[in-house]
Specification:
With 132 residues, the protein is mainly β. Helices cover 14% and strands 38% of the residues. It has 2 helices and 10 strands. The strands form 2 sheets. An 8-stranded mixed β-sheet has the order 9-8-7-6-2-3-1-10. The chain has a two-stranded antiparallel sheet with strand order 4-5. α2 links the parallel β6 and β7. 28% of the residues are buried. Bound molecules: zinc ion (ZN). Zinc ion binds next to β6.
């Protein structure tokens, strides 16, 4: 994938298995938003995502998705969330940035193909994403 801004040192990598799981979960939830917790490791700015968790008590609709953070177990491998945008762009909304969780936010837009997924930091800047 090509990003215009190259100055970010952070890099996200995602296994193909995790990508496929995200995409099929989003398709299943369509036309509502889907939300999942990302599990992985972060080292020297390189974030490796290798697992997914369905958040407890999550609530979703066509234009929102969330979960009560207070129900989450304290787990250091929870490094961010992924959610879908059934309509519109993959850019984070003001609400998304306000509810930022962890180090990274992945957003998948419809039609949920391999090129529909984007990574963002807590300021709404894009982070390069690679699939392994
Ligand atoms: Zn959103």
């Amino acid at each position: 994938m090509i990003f215009k801004k190259k100055k970010f040192e952070r890099n996200i990598s995602l296994t193909k298995d995790v990508l496929d799981s995200i995409l099929s979960y989003c398709q299943m939830k369509h036309p509502n938003e889907a939300i999942l917790i990302l599990k992985g490791k972060s080292k020297n700015g390189n974030i490796k995502i290798d697992g997914l968790v369905i958040p407890p008590f999550n609530f979703t609709g066509p234009t929102f998705a969330g979960f009560p953070h207070s129900f989450l177990p304290l787990d250091m491998s929870y490094i961010g969330i992924v959610h879908s945008h059934p309509t519109g762009s993959a850019e984070p909304s003001v609400t998304d940035l306000h509810n930022f969780f962890g180090l990274v936010s992945l957003i998948v837009k419809s039609p949920y193909c391999d090129n529909s997924i984007f990574a963002w930091d807590s300021s709404g800047n894009p982070i390069p994403l690679s699939i392994e």
